[in-house]
Amino acid sequence: MGFRKYIPVIVTALMVVGLQIVLSLTGATYYLTQITMSAYYALVVIGLCLLMGYAGQVSLGHAGFFAIGGYTSAVLTTCNLIAYRDNSLIAWCGSLGLVTQWTDIYGKDILSFSPWAALAAALLLTSLIAVLIGVSIIHLKGHYLAMATLGFGLIIYRIVLGAQIFGQADGISNVPPFGLFDGLQVNGRLPFRTQNYYIAWVMVITTMMLAINLIDSHIGRALRSIHQNEEAAHSLGVNTYRCKLFTFVLSALIAAAGGIFLTHYNGSIGPSEVTVMKSIRYVAIVAVGGMANLWGALFMGILLNFLSLRGVFGSYDDAVFGAILIGIMLLAPQGLLRKPDFRAVLSFLSKRSHG
Amino acid sequence: MLRILNLEAGYGLLHILKGISLHVLPGEAVAIIGANGAGKTTLLKTIAGILRPRSGTVVFNKQEIHRESPEKIVAGGCSLVPEGRHIFSTMTVKENLLLGAYHRRRKCTAADIAASMEEVYDLFGILRERANQLGGTLSGGQQQMLAIGRALMSKPKLLMMDEPSLGVAPLTVRDIYKTIARLKQNGLTILLVEQNAQMALAVADRGYVFETGQIVLEGTARELSDNPEVQRAYLGKDYQKINE
Ligand SMILES: Nc1ncnc2c1ncn2[C@@H]1O[C@H](COP(=O)(O)OP(=O)(O)OP(=O)(O)O)[C@@H](O)[C@H]1O
Ligand SMILES: [Mg+2]
Fold this sequence. Notes:
- The complex is a heterodimer of chains A (355) and B (244).
- In chain A, 67% of the residues lie in helices and 5% in strands.
- By secondary structure, chain A is mainly alpha-helical.
- Chain A has a two-stranded antiparallel sheet. In chain A, strands 3-4 form a two-stranded antiparallel ribbon.
- In chain A, helix 5 runs antiparallel to helix 10.
- Chain A is globular and about 65 Å long.
- Chain A starts with 6 loop residues before the first helix and ends with a helix.
- Chain B is of the alpha/beta class.
- Chain B has one domain: P-loop containing nucleotide triphosphate hydrolases (Rossmann fold).
- Chain B contains eleven helices and ten strands.
- In chain B, the strands form two sheets. Chain B has a six-stranded mixed sheet with strand order 6-7-8-3-9-10, with helices on both faces. In chain B, strands 2-1-4-5 form a four-stranded antiparallel sheet, with helices on one face.
- Chain B is globular, with a radius of gyration of 18 Å.
- Chain B starts with a strand and ends with a helix.
- The relative contact order of chain B is 0.18.
- At the A-B interface, helix 8 and helix 9 of A face helix 2 and helix 3 of B.
- Magnesium ion (MG) is lined by residues 40-41, 83, 162-163 of chain B.
């Protein structure tokens, strides 16, 4: 049992490697860029799948958390502190390695916070905001929760669009690459393409393993039990308030991580990442992936984002995701990609052959 | 172990329990019998903290629990096997059992919990065989065993069971009651609600008879089985005679 749940992980890893080999043999490596971006978006989807499918809570504000991650990192790694170089506080940060000096594409010297420091700050800020919001809304149910998170998403969007520091409608560009370790870096430039494909997938697969283990833990069991039979769960002494809050914060952090790395990968972030339509898109992907089906959500997250980034949906992009959501809610509210019940299929077949 | 005084409870405007007083001594098995809608389930739900009483007190282990949350009551050692079993059907047998030990997750090691699971498996061998099967695929009787096992995983001092024979084949009912008798022998205190009065009074030391939210009769299991009223209403003696 312990090993069996990792089989899909191994299969996915093999498929990822296989895809890269096929694309490089056919000379179609330009696809890798969009797959890498899709992988970062898929992170958001995985986190949201935990929240929607297992904690039973809909969030229409996850683009907001994505943005908090991306924008915090972008602001901190692009703010030029060179004028304050001699300030003792900055010097102290420098001695701790929290600030670094680099040269942007125009050859200007920039002294800014290092991506690692920015990452820590962004995740810290995200958890703080997620806890504050979670504590106040997690007891809400159904559409009240959706409305509250929708409100949160709208507020973040307005802040991003209005504040000078976030570049208003232009967003923030010239975000430096994120040097991880040993020459590995989250960097969207051509020479780093294959490397970044693998970096993104390592993150996705790590997150998947985290999610699988969470579902298998006492938190996951508690969430599922409440989902299925609230009264029975209560009679066993299962109190899910904390479990729900924990999942909410975790999914917000995963979304923020997606935002942080995609921002470094693209070298920029703009308000289009923060629109409510983006949040709805994530919800639609989880729904079409089968709600409580992490692998389905991952698959759909990669596929639909990839198609969208390739421009397959043209100017109907947002409409496509809206239509998907409406279609799912009308036709298959349990989600499209359900885990097939092999036992049911087998018994059906055996009945057929007997009869 | 359990002492209830003048308990009143209901749903919304519905007044169901009208001043119930009863007690259960340590190591005792007590049966509550009564017709449909008499309020037996309501009583157990109120003790378990799922339903708030309007007035009256519930004292468990010398502590008032009628204002406590279900979590606290389970953690305090009072577990309910709910009517209709309420198995988590899309979770495996093992996961169902682990959920029973939910309140012990901080206090106990994984080994303690595994040991409890072994005890449950020893009690109900079929659960060991089906450990990785989904709860919903079990038969009615097996689900009842799982529900009892799940409640036992919380290491209760008092086990409350609501109609364990409901929807279970007669042979399996016998098995389940054998297990209940064994649990009692091992020193567990039991409060049992049943319509199947014969079975319940066979395993119980004492009993109470419920009618429309009130206790109309109480006594030792022997006294109740011999009581002509009880025989007529709940043991179906007349019915048997007619059949003969
Ligand atoms: N959730 C509820 N809301 C409103 N009324 C309820 C609810 N549950 C039970 N009742 C009512 O309370 C009364 C007592 O129900 P209860 O389930 O306690 O009876 P019972 O003795 O357990 O009966 P049975 O032997 O059929 O299980 C019934 O009249 C029932 O209709
Ligand atoms: Mg009942």
